[in-house]
Design goal:
13 strands
Length: 303
């Protein structure tokens, strides 16, 4: 079975579910949200990242590269990603740790081994493992089922963080191994959803209805982006939809937008297009929270 690309394994997390958790971030996502704070997880391949602020222009990377993919233009190294074979040699020779490759391959066995290391913390705090991304449900189904089965057989509770834009059968196949689904609803207006994420929301909402009918535990997560979806109208339409389909039995989590991931874009050679987005004020977040509570939902700010 082919190993899967992971960008990070975050230990001792207190987000993405109950208790102390290990969150595994898989690489690759079918959406391309303009505000994404983990852009290195979007593509389904390893990507070169260069931190210009750390680089001293010593030229060791260019001298070491066996593919001739790195050259010096003045005091600046330039990398031809088409020539790069992702051998990591330049990364190893970089004295300033300015070069890295997003994504490392892990087997099912390696991921389970990492998760089991912290099992005592899960047991004491009612925590577990959260599979995130990118989009974890866009993985190879056999790989994902083996991973989740292996974790649950060891008594580890597993949460799945998903955007929902995947085939229904991918979701259905992991229901038996999932403690809680953390399900994103970004926008109710499908046209605006497509503009901001690259795809409409019809299949996302259809999958959520099916998931709720299956009896699975679902936490709704709404990334609140100032100037995009922080309106009364979007919140009302979201709550109307959840009410109509009896979704969100446990929680709605309102996640205020932040731009802490914007610095990753230039390291990937990309432009961050969310400069006009705003972090909603505390007062605005409280107003949206109050709308949820008045409708009878359990809700809170943060994940």
């Amino acid at each position: 079975m082919k190993a899967q690309l992971v960008t990070d394994i975050q230990k001792y997390s207190i987000h993405d579910g109950e208790g102390i958790r290990t969150t595994i971030f898989f690489k690759g996502c079918p959406l391309s949200c303009v505000w994404c704070h983990n852009p290195e997880t979007q593509e389904y391949r390893q990507q070169f990242m260069w931190n210009q602020e750390k680089c001293t222009g010593c030229g060791e990377c260019a001298a070491a590269c066996p593919d001739g993919a790195v050259s010096m233009k003045g005091s600046r190294p330039v990398t031809d990603t088409e020539m790069c074979s992702v051998c990591h040699t330049c990364e190893e020779y970089c004295l300033q740790n300015a070069r890295e490759f997003a994504g490392r391959e892990y087997t099912v066995e390696e991921l389970i081994k990492e998760a089991v290391k912290d099992q005592p913390f899960y047991e004491q705090s009612h925590g577990g493992v959260t599979l995130s991304g990118g989009e974890v449900l866009a993985r190879d189904k056999e790989f994902l089922e083996q991973l989740m089965r292996g974790l649950t057989e060891r008594g580890i509770r597993v949460n799945v963080d998903t955007c929902g834009y995947v085939p229904w059968e991918n979701i259905e196949s992991v229901i038996p191994y999932t403690d809680t689904f953390l399900y994103d609803i970004k926008l109710m207006d499908s046209g605006l959803h497509e503009k901001m994420t690259g795809a409409g929301n019809e299949s996302i909402l259809d999958n959520l209805i099916k998931l709720s009918k299956s009896g699975a535990a679902v936490w709704i997560r709404i990334p609140v982006v100032g100037g995009v979806n922080d309106t009364d109208r979007n919140m009302k339409e979201t709550l109307d939809f959840l009410d109509a389909h009896s979704i969100g039995q446990k929680w709605i989590h309102l996640l205020p937008y932040h731009n802490t991931g914007s610095g990753k874009y230039p390291r990937l050679g990309q432009e961050y297009k969310g400069r006009d987005f705003m972090t909603p004020s505390k007062e605005r977040m409280q107003e949206l929270l109050d709308m949820c509570l008045k409708r009878g939902f359990q809700a809170r700010i943060g994940g």
